[in-house]
Amino acid sequence: MKTVKLDHIYVSVTDMDRAIAFYEELFGMKITHREKNQWADFDLGKGCYFGLIDYKIINEKRTIGNNSIPTFWADDVDAVYEKIKKYGVKITFPPLDLAFTTYKYYCFECEDTEGNLIEITNYERDHVK
């Protein structure tokens, strides 16, 4: 069987500079690559990239917002929450333990500066087999 793996995921943005500033602070790193105001990405390691794309250059209808929810693992969810709050973004729900999981899954959900939903989480992956 051929190998299939996640290479990258991207979200549509309306203000590339604003989105880059938000994600540089979230990830604690500078962008890896930028193509003017059309594309920027971050190398998150192991060949996986997170990209930002200008919604105007896509030849298909896109909805900015809840078309997908990228979830980012953090070692300190509460510290990331405090860091993100300074951007004045909409918080969907504050940090909490999800009640419907059979394991501890601590997370919060918010919009980025462009209105895309993202989730920040911390959980033990060892239980997933």
Structural features, described:
There is one protein chain. With 129 residues, the chain is an alpha/beta fold. It has one domain (8-127): 2,3-Dihydroxybiphenyl 1,2-Dioxygenase, domain 1. The chain has helices spanning 16-27, 77-85; strands at residues 8-13, 33-35, 39-43, 49-54, 71-73, 91-97, 105-111, 117-123. The strands form two sheets. It has a four-stranded mixed sheet, with helices on one face. A four-stranded mixed sheet has the order 5-8-7-6, with helices on one face. Strand 6 (91-97) and strand 7 form a beta hairpin.
Topology (SSEs and partners):
Blueprint: E1 8-13, H1 16-27, E2 33-35, E3 39-43, E4 49-54, E5 71-73, H2 77-85, E6 91-97, E7 105-111, E8 117-123
Parallel strand pairs: 1-4, 5-8
Antiparallel strand pairs: 2-3, 3-4, 6-7, 7-8
What does this entry show, briefly?
The protein is of the alpha/beta class. The protein has helices spanning 16-27, 77-85; strands at 8-13, 33-35, 39-43, 49-54, 71-73, 91-97, 105-111, 117-123. The chain has a single domain (8-127), classed as 2,3-Dihydroxybiphenyl 1,2-Dioxygenase, domain 1.
